[in-house]
Amino acid sequence: MAHHPSAEKRNRQRIKRAAANRSVLSAARTAVKKARAALLSGDPRAAGEAVKEASKVLARASKGSVLHRRTASRKTSRLQASLHKLG
Predict the structure, then answer these.
(1) Does residue 2 have a pLDDT over 90?
(2) DSSP class of 68
(3) From CA 5, how far away is CA 32, in angstroms rounded?
(4) Which one of 6, 31, 37, 52 has the minimum C-beta count within 10 Å?
(5) Cβ–Cβ contacts within 10 Å for residue 62, how many?
(6) What is the rounded CA–CA span in Å between residue 73 and residue 11?
(7) pTM of the predicted model, to two decimals?
(8) How far is it, in rounded angstroms, from Cα 49 to Cα 41?
């Protein structure tokens, strides 16, 4: 339990940031899941849109340090490669 005003403030900030980060990470996971589902469906048009959206969300997450930049890059790269294979 924080006893000093500055420590109490840091705790409040930590709670707010954790909630925001959790939201961004959840959105990124959902976008990747939707992109993978669209790729499995075999429809190039829908898959292209889903992969594009997932790439944007992953970039946003890595920019805010929610995801490591290389993790986001790797996931984006793999989605793009799968889309390319789909033709």
Answers:
(1) no
(2) -
(3) 41
(4) 6
(5) 19
(6) 32
(7) 0.86
(8) 13
Distances (CA, A) of 87 to 43, 45, 65: 10, 10, 33
pLDDT digits (tens, 9 = 90+) for 9-63: 999 999 999 999 999 999 999 999 999 999 999 999 999 999 999 999 999 999 9
The residue to which tokens 């984006």 are assigned:
76
Contact 31, 58 (CB under 8 A): yes
Please state whether 51 falls in left (phi above 0), alpha (psi between -120 and 50) or beta.
Answer: alpha
First and final C-alpha spacing in the chain = 57
3-state secondary structure of 79: helix
